[in-house]
Amino acid sequence: MADGGGWSTIESDEGVFTSLVENLGVKGVQFEELISLDADTIRSLSPVYGVIFLFKWMRDQAPTQTTTTPLDGTYDTTPPENLFFAAQTIQNACGTQAQSQANPAHRTRPHPPLLQRLHNRLPPDLRGEALSNSEEIRTAHNAFAKASPFVDETTRDANEEEGDAYHFIAYTAVNGTLYELDGLQPYPISHGSCAGAETGGGEDFAEKVIGVLQRRIARYPEGETRFNLMAVVRDLRLRASEIGDAELMEREERKRRAWAWENTLRRSNFVGFIGEVLKGVAGMKEGRGEFEEWVEKAKGETQRRLNRR
């Protein structure tokens, strides 16, 4: 990937996000993909420190300079000191920003040094600017970009209108309140009380956050399914070790090995390999005198597919 100085698009994937926060210095947590809006599933992963929600961004739902109230909930113009909120100022940085805001560091352990400095020294708008211009965070983020010799996502025009745009936001419970943390909004959004929030999500978190998400999804046209939800939870290997669950430990270790392999593939560019394979096949066909017949057959198959379309 060319180093264009920008932020590349990364996948909404539990292995990517877990590795990303670990590279940023957050330990003892992981991300778990949630395949349904089910309170029991969220509770089974307790403690749950927050959730990351990916959705198709719609212009008509974006805040404007005249916006005084969000579509759901209320702006908290004086959020608690231990709530990390940062305004998003750079395209494609929302994934890293969302997981930074949802991580449990503000409740259970110190932030990684860089995020702690941003939290202590800067207001939310400048936190976002500093985060977006951090070489350390940008490098960790871009390490999970899809490699391509043809398209450099870091140089994409910020005003580009082609294709659908997607956005990450976070929901977390702090000081007994459920917050929505969206870097495109001017303030954190409060969704009311959330009992037991200090224990890692609390008794009300699952029901409360699902209700908010359901109302948000209901604003989309019927049939829209392009959403993704991940929970930020305590490292499940720690739970397995504490309760002596060998089966859970082995399952989680297999998952980590799979994540490591998948992340290696994400960083790889296979165009050269594919080119060499094609050259080898072409050379074999030519050596057998079958090259022209092979090419004509391929042309015929392509034409038939086009005709069917």
TrEMBL record:
Residues 6-234 form the UCH catalytic domain. Signal peptide: none annotated. CDD domains: Peptidase_C12_UCH37_BAP1. Its EC number is 3.4.19.12. The keyword Protease applies. InterPro entries: Papain-like_cys_pep_sf, Peptidase_C12_UCH, Peptidase_C12_UCH_sf, Ubiquitinyl_hydrolase_UCH37, UCH_C. GO terms for molecular function: cysteine-type deubiquitinase activity. GO terms for cellular component: cytoplasm. Keywords: Hydrolase, Protease, Thiol protease, Ubl conjugation pathway. The keyword Lyase does not apply. One of its GO terms (biological process) is ubiquitin-dependent protein catabolic process. Residues 95-118 are annotated as: Disordered. It comes from the Eukaryota. This is Ubiquitin carboxyl-terminal hydrolase. It comes from Aspergillus campestris (strain IBT 28561).
